[in-house]
Description:
- The protein is mainly beta.
- It is about 5% helix and about 50% strand.
- The protein contains one helix and twelve strands; from the N terminus they run ββββββαββββββ.
- It has one helix at about 75-85, and strands spanning about 10-15, 25, 30-40, 40-45, 55-60, 65-70, 95-105, 115-125, 130, 135-145, 150-155, 160.
- The strands form two sheets. Strands 1, 2, 3, 6, 7, 8, 9, 10, 11 and 12 form a ten-stranded antiparallel sheet that branches.
- The protein is globular and about 60 Å long.
Amino acid sequence: MSEVIRQRRNQANYLNCGNGETDAYALMGVGAKTLDENPSAQTKSRKYVCDKSATKSISGYDWSTAFDIDQIREQEAINFIVNIGEKQLVGEDAETDYVVVDLDQKEGSSGTSYHARQFKVAIEVASFTNDDGEMGCTGNFLAKGDPVEGTFDTSTKTFTAGTEDA
């Protein structure tokens, strides 16, 4: 049996560029150079009197995704991100939903529905970069709370939260 490393193209990323009343998920594909997910497990350590070594556990996560994008303004998700930085939006105006879709994990019988994780994120635009005259943008998607597991239909661009039993 051969062991194959999962390819990055088997994971799609969608950003909700809607107006707050309706969802409008846009694919982050063309223009997105990196989308590096960082779970950043938070640990706690305790040393008991009967042990020489500490006992450690995972107490939570400080999840973020670093992005590096080319400013291709015709791409809806990229335009959404750049606008946040240019207008220096804050609070809810700089927040949206971000969905990570596993294209190698089909769900259901539709043929276009896949396992997904939805994150409520604050979009931190860190810098507008210049790469030999071509404009870019870097920053982070910063998680607000816990992710929601579910499915994402790539044809209708809708996320459906899973059940607790699933």
